């Protein structure tokens, strides 16, 4: 176990170096959500209620972008280019390799949330989080949930050329339905009911309680249960459908 964790650590360090050597990846992981924050923050300037909705919304979107979207794109690329197949044939344990990839996504999510919190404090008057423990819990559950769903969804992508389309067909509707840029309680009833089924809206509610309103974990317990259910679904299909070979090789 110790050797496997050591190898996972080395794989994680390699993933970090590869990430920073790809400026495009760094842009979409870090700068793009901040651009959304700056744009909508300027629009909502002077309306603190809307800003209090926007900050946790962007934080939730950032977690989804750095886990779900990142893993859909990366795993599809690695699978279709034969990297996963070759890595499986090396002495590196499969679990260590995948853990290094997952840890890289987790770190990106944590950095992005931290950047949003600092921007909210310095530029938009939302202050520091009211409940750090609740914030950690929701970030942890959100990362695991959306990462597992990203792995599961990547199994459906037929090739890397289609990866962006398959990602966006989920990512874009979910962030708009879940109230990233507006108060979801003001949405039409059919959208509100749809949003309540999705994990992102409950993740945003939990982050809002931790960062802005001060609602406790107990107040958001039902939402956390929904996130847990989606996590179980994501883990089940991520494990069940995972393959190391490209589809064309089967």
How would you portray this structure in words?
With 250 residues, this protein is mostly helical. It has one domain (2-249). It contains ten helices and no strands. The protein has helices at residues 2-20, 23-43, 48-80, 83-88, 94-123, 132-154, 163-177, 189-197, 199-213, 221-241. Helix 1 (2-20) packs across helix 5, helix 3 packs antiparallel against helix 7 and helix 9 (199-213) crosses helix 10. The longest helix has 33 residues, at 48-80. It is globular and about 55 Å long. The mean pLDDT is 88.
Lay out the secondary structure.
Layout: H1 2-20, H2 23-43, H3 48-80, H4 83-88, H5 94-123, H6 132-154, H7 163-177, H8 189-197, H9 199-213, H10 221-241
Strand content: under 5%
- Strand tally is 0
Helical stretch count? 10
Mean pLDDT: 88
Intertermini distance:
32 Å
Weakly predicted, low-confidence segments: none
Helix content: over 70%
- Radius of gyration, in angstroms, nearest whole number: 18 Å
- The helix-strand sequence is HHHHHHHHHH
Instruction: Report the biggest beta sheet as strand number plus sense, adding barrel if it closes.
Output: none
Globally, the shape reads: globular
Please tell me the total number of domains: 1
Oligomer: single chain
Structural class: mainly alpha
């Amino acid at each position: 176990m110790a050797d496997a964790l050591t190898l996972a650590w080395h794989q994680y360090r390699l993933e970090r170096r590869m990430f920073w050597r790809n400026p495009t990846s760094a842009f979409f992981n870090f700068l793009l959500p901040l651009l959304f924050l700056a744009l909508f923050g300027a629009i909502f300037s002077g309306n603190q209620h809307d800003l209090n909705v926007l900050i946790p919304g962007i934080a939730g979107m950032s977690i989804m972008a750095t886990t779900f979207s990142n893993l859909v794109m990366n795993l599809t690329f690695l699978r279709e280019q034969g990297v996963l197949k070759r890595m499986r044939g090396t002495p590196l344990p499969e679990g260590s390799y995948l853990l290094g990839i997952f840890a890289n996504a987790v770190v990106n999510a944590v950095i992005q949330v931290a950047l949003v919190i600092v921007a909210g404090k310095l530029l938009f008057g939302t202050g520091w989080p009211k409940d750090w423990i609740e914030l950690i819990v929701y970030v942890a559950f959100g990362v695991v949930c959306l990462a597992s769903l990203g792995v599961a969804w990547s199994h459906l992508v037929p090739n890397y050329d289609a990866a962006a389309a398959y990602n966006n067909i989920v990512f874009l509707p979910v962030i708009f339905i879940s109230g990233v840029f507006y108060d979801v309680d003001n949405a039409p009833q059919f959208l509100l009911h749809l949003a309540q089924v999705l994990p992102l809206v409950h993740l945003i509610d939990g982050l809002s309680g931790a960062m802005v309103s001060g609602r406790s974990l107990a107040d958001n317990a039902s939402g956390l249960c929904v996130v847990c259910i989606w996590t179980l679904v994501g883990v089940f299909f991520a494990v069940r459908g995972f393959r190391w070979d490209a589809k064309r090789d089967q």
